[in-house]
């Protein structure tokens, strides 16, 4: 069994092990559901401003995380997340976007990246797949939010192609991590989802789904994203995959499916602390 690549750092978050060896000052990981001030369905570290939790409490929770990571909240950047495949490059001018107000986040996108230090990229999750991207030689880092809609729209490949076209990056130099999300064990979908998959990307390995009954399937969304990444030119050895299932791990994570939509949000995050010399 492959060792888990995300390790619990404290009760608020997990860190992606090994990536700090590539970039000094790199802060990268995924939050848990613990260590905050929210109550009820959002107990306790809800970090989403769009789920009908008290906004002031969510902002307080975000400050808890910022302090734990030693990365000031005014340097964070959030996005709207509309299940698209649109990618936006963030700069220091975008710092603070979406921090205090959901409506103020980067609009109309589900992927963000930056080449600047002192910018913490972050996206919200409660079962969808977080994708982390890095090119150490260029200090280029990125995040994407891949629910089933974003996945079949190839948001993974969009990040790769954008970096190739706009940043001059060879896909073979890109390192990717697939973070905690709902697992095959808990994710059941219908024909609409399966028929949306580009079957030509499934040639590099086992099928990421199996039919359980007529029109009902079990889908491994992480593996499907891995297929899209491989199709975009990423080496298999450059892809790390978390074994965590957000639905199974009730003590660690919120889950939209498990909690019937009444739940909080975790954050994926990645940034390079500008106070650390490279």
Q: What does this protein structure show overall?
A:
49% of the residues are buried. 18% of the residues lie in helices and 25% in strands. Strands 1-2-3-15-7-4 form a six-stranded mixed beta sheet, with no helix packed on it. It has a six-stranded mixed beta sheet with strand order 5-6-9-8-10-14. The chain has one domain (6-272): CNF1/YfiH-like putative cysteine hydrolases, CATH 3.60.140. The chain is an alpha+beta fold and 278 residues long. The chain has five helices and 15 strands.
Percent of residues in helices comes to: 10-25%
By CATH, the superfamily comes out as CNF1/YfiH-like putative cysteine hydrolases
Largest sheet: 6 strands, mixed
CA-based shape: globular
Task: Quickly give the CATH architecture.
Answer: 4-Layer Sandwich
Mean pLDDT figure:
96
What's the gyration radius in Å?
Answer: 17 Å
Strand content: 25-35%
Note the run of SSEs as H and E: EEEHEEEEEEHHEEHEEHEE
Outline:
The protein is an alpha+beta fold. The protein has helices spanning 55-69, 148-152, 155-167, 191-195, 221-231, and strands spanning 6-10, 13-16, 26-31, 76-77, 87-89, 111-114, 120-125, 129-135, 140-146, 175-178, 188-190, 209-213, 216-219, 239-241, 266-272.
Secondary structure elements and pairings:
Blueprint: E1 6-10, E2 13-16, E3 26-31, H1 55-69, E4 76-77, E5 87-89, E6 111-114, E7 120-125, E8 129-135, E9 140-146, H2 148-152, H3 155-167, E10 175-178, E11 188-190, H4 191-195, E12 209-213, E13 216-219, H5 221-231, E14 239-241, E15 266-272
Parallel strand pairs: 4-7, 5-6, 10-14
Antiparallel strand pairs: 1-2, 2-3, 3-15, 6-9, 7-15, 8-9, 8-10, 11-13, 12-13
């Amino acid at each position: 069994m492959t060792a888990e690549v995300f390790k619990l750092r404290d009760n608020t978050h997990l860190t992606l092990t090994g990536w700090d060896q590539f970039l000094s000052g790199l802060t990268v990981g995924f939050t848990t559901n613990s260590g905050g001030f929210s109550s009820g369905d959002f107990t306790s570290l809800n970090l989403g401003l769009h789920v009908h939790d008290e906004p002031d409490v969510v902002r307080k929770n975000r400050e808890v995380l910022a302090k734990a990571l030693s990365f000031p909240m005014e340097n964070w950047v959030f996005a709207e997340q509309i299940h698209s495949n649109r990618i936006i490059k963030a700069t220091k001018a975008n710092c603070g976007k979406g921090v205090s107000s959901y409506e103020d986040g980067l609009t109309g996108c589900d992927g963000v990246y930056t080449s600047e230090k002192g910018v913490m990229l972050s996206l919200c999750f409660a079962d969808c797949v977080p994708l982390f991207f890095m090119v150490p030689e260029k200090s280029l880092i990125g995040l994407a939010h891949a629910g089933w809609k974003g996945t079949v729209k190839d948001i993974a490949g969009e990040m790769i192609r954008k970096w190739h076209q706009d940043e001059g990056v060879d896909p073979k130099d890109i390192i990717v991590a697939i973070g905690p999300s709902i697992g095959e064990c808990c994710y059941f979908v219908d024909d609409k989802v399966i028929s949306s998959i580009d079957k030509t990307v499934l040639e590099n390995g086992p099928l990421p789904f199996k039919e359980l009954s007529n029109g009902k399937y079990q889908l491994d969304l992480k593996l499907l994203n891995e297929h899209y990444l491989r199709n975009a030119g990423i080496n298999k050895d450059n892809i790390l995959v978390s074994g965590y299932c957000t639905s199974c791990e009730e003590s660690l994570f919120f889950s939209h499916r498990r909690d019937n939509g009444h739940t909080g949000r975790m954050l994926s995050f990645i940034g390079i602390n500008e106070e650390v010399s490279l």
